[in-house]
Every structure is written in C-alpha cells, then in structure tokens.
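User: Structure with adenosine-5'-diphosphate, tokens only please.
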Amino acid sequence: MRAFLPNGSLRAKLVVQLLAVAAVLAVALYFTVRSTADRAAEAAQDAILGAATTSIAEQLRATEDGIEVDLAYATFSMLGAMGQDRLFYRIDIAGETVTGYSDLPPPPARPASLAPEFYSSPYLDADLRIAAVARSIVVGKGPVPVLVLIGQTRQGQAAIADSLANRAALIGVGFFVLAVPLSLLSAGSVFNPINRLAEAVGRRGPRDLRPVRHPAPRELAPLLGALNGFVARLRGALSQTETFIAEAAHHIRTPLSTVRTEAEIALRQSEDEPTRVRLRSMIRGVEASARSASQLLDHAMVLYRSDQLERVEVDLSAVVRNVARAFEPTAELREVSLIVTGGDGAFMTQGDPLLIESALRNLVDNAIKYSGTETEVRIGLSREHGMVQVKVADQGRGLSGASMAQLAVRFTRGGNVGDVVGSGLGLTIVTEVAQALGGQFDLREMETGGTCASLSLPAL
Ligand SMILES: Nc1ncnc2c1ncn2[C@@H]1O[C@H](COP(=O)(O)OP(=O)(O)O)[C@@H](O)[C@H]1O
Ligand SMILES: [Mg+2]
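Assistant:
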C-alpha cells in the first residue's frame, strides 16, 4: 500500500493503475468471449436439432391404419455430430405418446406449424436442449395433431464454449503479461521529463541562479513557475546578504577607525593623567569592537560563501605568503618574527581562495597575539597522504589544557587569553572553512611549549 501514500512513488501508482485497467480489460474480454461462444454453440446445436426434428415430423405419413413413423438413421447420425451427447425423443399423436420418452418435458406453448420451437429444460440427471415441431396429419375422419420432440444433452456445446473461453482466458493472461512491461515503459516515459528537469537543475553550479528555462511538458509549468519564483527570491536575498556584508564592513570599520584616530590624537595632546587613562581604555574598546565587527562579518562571509562554494584551483603557498606579508607589520610591532618554511613549489588545492585566506588569517592572528615578544611564529607547508597542509606554530602561552573542540565553539574564548582582545570566532571560522572544503583542522599544544595549528586541505 506504500504506493498510495502521498509520499509514495507516483511511478508505482501509475503502473498499478495501468495494470488494474489491463486486468479489468482481460477479465471483460474473457466474459465477452465466453457468453458469445455459449450463444454461438447454442445456435449451432439449435440448427441441427431443429433440422432433425423437422425432418422426422415431415416423414410422418398417414396410412390406412394410422400414422407411420420412420426414424431414419441419417437423422440421428446428423445429431451425433455433436459429440458424446445423449439423445431423447418423444412423438405424440393426438395427445398420446406413441414412441420415445413420454415424460420428456413438452414446450411451454404449442409451436406453430413446422417451425421448430427451442427451449432448455432439466431432464433426469442432465440439462437438455429440446426442439419441438408440431404439425397435423389428416387421417381418416380429419386432422390429427402431432408433436415431435428431440432433446439433447449439452456437453458438446459446453465443450466448444469452454475451449473458446479457455483460449480467451489465455489471450487475456497474455495481454496482461504484455501490459506489465508496457505499463512500466509508459510510466517511465511519463516521468522522464521530470527526471530530465531535475537533472538539469541538479547539474547547475552553486552560483547559477538563472531562471530554469529547460523545456518541460505543460503539466510541469506550475512547478517550474514556482521553482523560478523561488530562485528569484533566493537570488534577491543572496544579493542583499552580499551587499550587506560588503557595506557593513565599510560602514562599521570607517567610523571606528575615525574614532580611534581622534582618540589617539587626544591622548597625545592631553596632559591630564585621568583623561589619558580614560582615552587609553577607550582606544582599547574601539579596537576590540573593530575586531569583533570584522570577525563577525568574516564569519558571515564564510557562511555565505561555503553555502555556494566556488571551486577554483588555489595555490596554498601563494595564500600563505600573502597572509604572512599582510601580518608582517603586526608581527614587527609585537617583536615576533614570522617565518615561512617549506614553501617551495606549488601546493595546489581546490576551493574558494577567500575562505582559505580567512582561515589562515585567523590562525596567524592567534599565533601572533597569544605569543610573547621576541618569539617566533613558523608557518610550514607540507604534503601528506593526498593533502596539502599548513602548520602555524608559535612559542606562546599554550592552551592551558583546553581542547580544540571546546575552543572552536562560537564566541568561546579560552581561560588563557589574559588581556588579549578577541571575539571567540576565529577557530569557528577555521573549522567551518575546513569542513566546507573537505579538509581537517587541528589545534594542539606542543611538548616544547607553544601552540601548533594545522589545516589540511585535499591536494589537487
Ligand atoms: N595560538 C594560540 N595560542 C594560545 N591560545 C590560543 C591560540 N589560538 C587559539 N587559542 C585559544 O582558543 C580560543 C579561541 O580562539 P578564537 O576562536 O580565535 O578566538 P579569539 O582569538 O577571538 O579569542 C582563544 O580565546 C584562545 O584561548
Ligand atoms: Mg582568534
């Protein structure tokens, strides 16, 4: 019954319906043939019975001492053609049975002259078909009514009808058997356009949000219309998100950096110590909110882009060098030396370069900001088991026993952060990027002290 549930298979439902129609047609064929065959066999038997009865009736002759009955062998051999059937006859003259079975059932009404009357009636243990012919013969003083009956069992007729009906049943079964593959085929052809449409939509790239213009049967037009409406709304929502991310970054960062610059100028000009303390804490606050805002937007960007993942060839070593160059001033300010090792040749992977860059930026940012002065941050590239790997190792404070799984939760910061600013989104971003690109991320404290973060991505 699963085929009839709303979430069952339409194809199965259609096949079942087609087969049901085929079965009904096959049964109807059987019964039509059966009743036609019955009638035809009966008509054939009637024709022979009628001829025989009429012929006997016609052979009755008036003689001087009564009526002479001549039961010709030819008459009965004609009836023998019907197979193994038994014959019964009765001849009544003037209402008296003169020969044959006197209890053979008479016709319901006396038949018209010489035209045989046919009827069926049970007799002894059998079902008989009987022909009755009436005539009158002039004997002596006047006409005498004569009635001739011949009854025959119906086995031969039934055998003919049965054999025809059996053949019809065989044809019906054959028809049904043929209907099985045909209905499967026709159900398949009905659903082909739907499958082709689904394939066409499925083949599209994640960024392909053009309306679907695939040719489809008229019945699919409402579905196609709804799908295109949905695609259009999605396109609108996505472009709004994209615009929002881009504009928000600009509209938040710019005023914040203005506030920061102004506060720094005020700090330089101020002689009053309490004001200087306030200004310093203000600068720290502005810095923290700028970082938070940029991390939040980064996170939004990562979620947005991993949703509609772009897959292009990316050289991981190029991304590493770019990120290292971008962090050079920050590292110098904190007296941390940033060293890139093992970056010879290309380390090709596939994915969205912006996502990879965002992950690396977060790793390098963490390594620098959680390190002390005059330490090293080493960024190493390597190939392993079909993956390209970048390791960021620092000589900083370590993880104080916290695990990567704990630290990677959104907005979660470790107990080791001290007065280092942060929003707790960096490792979340890295984990999401690794997941989106089919890679792995690991963060552990090294035995020699310091932390080592490693990001592996599938090599091309
Ligand atoms: N290189 C590192 N050294 C020490 N601790 C780290 C390092 N990287 C990450 N952590 C710990 O993991 C936490 C989560 O990191 P992250 O998600 O980048 O947030 P945030 O850096 O904004 O605090 C940090 O708060 C810190 O406790
Ligand atoms: Mg961080």
